[in-house]
UniProtKB/TrEMBL annotation:
InterPro entries: SET_dom (IPR001214), SET_dom_sf (IPR046341), SET_domain_protein (IPR053185). Residues 86-230 form the SET domain. This is SET domain-containing protein. It holds the Pfam family SET.
């Protein structure tokens, strides 16, 4: 498989300066080995320990700061987004293994991490266990060590190598052209824990073979960075927990899952309402598709204009719920995309509204994926066409 093979044979220096705190020496060396080409300053004391953070263990802390990031080769004239320095630290936590924390305030829309995958598979390869094993065998010894220390949910009927892959890989669906989908596993991205209310968004850049993570909310200093592993964002906590235990072997303790605060009390209610709003839009879509179908008994009772208004009203409700739940990133961008599509169905008099929602989608995608992501660029083209009053 070309991509995994390529990155395995020619590891590149892509990661930002990452501080490792309170990480066992063996882990330090393996993590550093992955960050090829960066020199290590040991016991520098550059990164201070945040004593206010409950997960931080202050004894025997050793800090490592990696040297300035190298220049990244790329096509001439194309400025690739790079994570800024000194934003992250990897810390050993008592209950969640190694985790990634911010060392300073990070604004929404900041690229926090970019790395080449250890293994990257397309959708035809990813269901073949032997391909995972084969790609693993192509990694360097240092990379294999990094890989084998990643979290293993010990999935049944799988070898350790395959089980680790499925315990940590990110879904690349939507980021590869032609519906190739697939998935990728990275050394540092695997250290980002899950949250049902994530503060970073994963994306995959096909051109550079990079896994990228952008902050989708402002992140305060000392806060854990988390991404969402789970597609089922509109489900209640108990249902999410069952799936997470089954597929990933962990119990999420984010603010939407732990019964301890005001947010949690309202979270299930909001997610149920989100689910209802999505169902209502799907119902409108089905009704619209059935227009002209003689079998549709009451088709004459609800016209297209009413269906469009009903769908837009449900989507407006969904937008409000997502914002209250701080569930931004992909779910919110997709909601705006749907709103623009429905507004366009109003014909000429819906143009301004379609532009308004498309601009919102664009803003969300710039924050979550960056300006050079294909989806962001596609929206810009679409928006230009909408503003020019033509449909594409
Ligand atoms: Zn959760």
């Amino acid at each position: 498989m070309a991509k995994g093979k390529k990155s395995a044979k020619r590891p590149q220096s892509l990661s930002p300066r990452i501080a490792l705190e309170n990480v066992a020496e063996v882990d330090q060396h393996i993590l550093v080995a992955q960050l090829d080409g960066l020199c290590v300053v040991d016991d520098s004391g550059i990164i201070s320990v945040d004593k206010t953070r409950p997960d931080s263990i202050t004894q025997n802390v050793r800090a490592i700061e990696l040297a300035a990031r190298p220049s990244i080769p790329g096509p001439a004239g194309v400025l690739k987004p790079r994570p800024e320095d000194d934003m992250l630290q990897v810390i050993s936590t008592p209950d969640r293994g190694l985790a990634v924390f911010s060392t300073r305030k990070i604004k929404a829309g900041t690229l926090v991490l970019a790395e080449h995958p250890l293994i990257s598979l397309n959708k035809h390869e990813e269901n073949d266990y032997s391909t995972v094993e084969r790609e693993f065998s192509k990694l360097s010894r240092a990379e294999q060590k990094v890989y084998l220390r990643l979290f293993d949910a010990r999935k049944s009927r799988m070898s350790r190598v395959v089980s680790i892959y499925y315990s940590n890989c990110y879904n690349c669906e939507g980021f590869r052209p032609g519906g190739q989908g697939g998935s990728a596993i990275g050394a540092l991205s695997s250290r980002l824990n899950h949250s049902c209310v994530p503060n970073v968004q994963f994306s995959y850049d096909e051109g550079s073979n990079e896994m990228r993570f952008y902050a989708i909310r402002d992140i305060s200093r000392g806060k854990e960075l988390s991404s969402n592993y789970d597609k089922s964002v509109f489900e209640v906590a108990a249902k999410r927990r069952r799936k997470q235990q089954m597929y990933y072997g962990f119990v999420c303790r984010c603010e939407a899952c732990e019964p301890k605060n005001e947010f949690w009390v309202k979270s299930d209610e909001r997610r149920l309402a989100m689910y209802d709003a999505v169902r209502a839009v799907q119902w409108c879509e089905r009704r619209l598709a059935a227009e002209g179908d003689a079998a549709m008994v009451d088709k004459a009772q609800v016209g297209e204009a009413e269906l469009v208004e009903e769908a837009l009203s449900s989507l407006t409700r969904l937008e409000g719920l997502l914002l209250k739940e701080s569930l931004v990133g992909v779910p919110l961008a997709n909601t705006y995309r749907s709103m623009a599509k429905w507004a366009e169905r109003k014909g000429d008099h819906g143009d301004d509204e379609a532009v308004k929602w498309k601009v919102k989608e664009l803003e969300m995608c710039i924050t979550a994926f960056g300006r050079d992501c294909q989806r962001t660029r596609d929206i810009e083209v679409k928006l230009e066409a909408l503003q020019a009053g033509r449909s594409i």
